[in-house]
Specification:
Chain lengths: 206, 290
């Protein structure tokens, strides 16, 4: 089990291979559908004019994203009324929905870690090779277990997106995941997809 | 009429935090089938640890507490209007107590209501009047990741060589399992409806997911196909979380429906391993959660 600390260096990323189990520690951000679309539309493709809040949020997340990781997660959060936030359940959501945006966002922010479940496609894999970066697969549904590794909630941005879609800044200790896409072009997901397709063809030929 | 709001809150808490025993047993068996040291084995270990911890801490098994789907079977004389009010109140309360994540998002304005109360279909509540004197409420929490990998086929399907018969059904169900990969949080359970129209077929495919994993279909032809499809889906090698491995599905549950002469739909609803379903029975003044 390799222990990784954020921010992540190029050398550390290049040393990771598909299949490596890791424990991640440090500060990272959550972000899913609304956050990815917002980052892509506002700052990467500049399709819309940023508001003052957009610009303030951008300045706040930039240093966290550089060399950092984004976690595809819509948590259950306690303490919403007192703002004494605590993650109660925080497993990964399906990452493939961010495929249209992820690669560009990695390049724009020098984002090195993408954490989620189900894996991602060719565009993200290409960005993993260039940036370099990795895709880290967390265990889907293991939400209470993963929430135990969230030691603190440091801030929240874009809470108007709703609790699941907001960008939560969290400190984690020994967050467990498996490298399933690496910076050398390796993807466990592409392999399982191809192998299962061949198995399906055999079953249907029988 | 009794106020069941607190009982509904408790039903939601139990459903969100306490995985049914038949599912947990199947997960333990699935862990044993994976090779020691493999990523699949590691995933199953984490899943089972999480199930125990969630139960112990009374905290959601999965953060995606999904669409709450209630099936209410009531004797004559109950007010469905008042039951609906109580269920909606309970859903908002369970959200405030962090048993549920606020999940109701207006598709047009993008606003999350914050309390899980959306339109008439969110939470989803079905009522049916039945004989006898027991009120029976089944609740399912159906997460979005697995909902997204559901599929509906219109037979015949030339590309898959699927005609309008059980062999055709077999072919499209295997195709759906392969397309789902690990995205719906494998190992999952496939609920399959054969027939109906597009709407009723989806509805029935979800309803089959209330059946316990060990239960055997009363129709011998469907029982045989359920068992064959479980076995064959596991030969796809997708495995837990899509990491590769022995267990891709925990089970397949099927039902036949009537259809129009022109239509032959096969609908597959995918339920993630966090198969959260519970029943509450109200008898006299007492509510018992099974």
């Amino acid at each position: 089990m390799r222990e990784l600390k954020m921010p992540l260096s190029d050398a550390v990323i290049r040393g990771l291979k598909v299949g490596d189990p890791i424990l991640l520690s440090g500060v990272m951000l959550t972000g899913r559908d609304a956050a990815h679309k917002w980052m892509a539309d506002t700052f990467v493709n500049r399709k819309r004019k940023p508001t003052a809040d957009d610009l303030a949020t951008y300045e706040a997340i930039k240093p966290l994203m550089a060399g950092g990781a984004i976690y595809h997660c819509g948590p259950v959060v306690a303490g919403l009324d007192t703002r004494d936030y605590r993650f109660v359940a925080a497993g990964p959501t399906t990452s493939t929905r961010e495929e249209p945006y992820q690669g560009d966002i990695m390049r724009h922010f020098n984002l090195k870690g993408v954490i989620g479940k189900g894996g991602m496609g060719k565009r993200t894999l290409a960005a993993c090779q260039e940036v370099p970066g990795v895709y880290l697969h967390a265990i889907g549904g293991a939400a209470t277990l993963i929430a135990e590794t969230v030691t603190r909630v440091l801030a929240v941005y874009k809470l108007d997106f709703g609790v699941p879609e907001a960008m939560w800044v969290i400190e984690v200790k020994d967050f467990p995941a498996v490298v399933t896409m690496d910076s050398h072009g390796g993807s466990l997901h592409a392999k399982i997809e191809a192998d299962s397709k061949a198995a399906l063809e055999r079953l249907l030929a029988a | 009429m009794a106020d069941l709001t607190e009982d509904f809150v408790e039903l939601i808490r139990r459903t969100s935090t306490d995985l049914p025993l038949d599912v947990e047993t199947a997960l333990v068996q699935a862990r044993e089938r994976e090779a020691p040291g493999s990523a699949a084995r590691g995933a199953m270990e984490s899943i089972l640890q999480n199930v125990k911890l969630a139960r112990q801490k009374s905290s959601p098994i999965c953060q995606d507490t999904g669409t709450p789907i209630f099936y209410v079977r009531h004797p004559e004389g109950w007010s469905t209007r008042r039951l609906r009010e109580q269920i909606r109140k309970a859903v908002a309360e369970a959200t405030a107590r962090a048993y549920l994540r606020p999940n109701a998002v207006d598709a047009l304005t993008e606003k999350n209501s914050g309390d899980n109360l959306g339109d008439e279909a969110f939470p989803t509540i079905y009522f049916e009047e039945v004989e006898g004197d027991e009120l029976v409420v089944d609740l399912m929490l159906k997460g979005g990741g697995c909902e997204n990998v559901g599929a509906q086929y219109s037979l015949p399907n030339g590309a898959l060589g699927a005609g309008r018969d059980l062999e055709g059904v077999r072919r499209v169900v295997l195709d759906a399992a392969q397309h789902a990969q690990g995205q719906g949080c494998a190992p999952g359970i496939l609920g399959v409806a054969i027939g109906g129209d597009r709407g009723s077929s989806y509805h029935a495919s979800k309803e089959t997911l209330f059946r316990k994993l060990e239960d055997v279909n009363p129709d011998p032809a469907l029982a045989a196909l359920e068992s064959r499809l479980s076995h064959e889906a596991n030969q796809l090698g997708i495995g837990p979380m899509g990491f590769g491995g022995e267990t891709t599905v925990l089970g397949v549950k099927m039902t036949g429906m009537h259809r129009l002469p022109a239509s032959f739909f096969v609908t597959v609803s995918y339920m993630c391993w966090a198969d959260r379903r519970r029943r509450m029975v109200v008898r006299g003044g007492d509510a018992v959660i099974e």
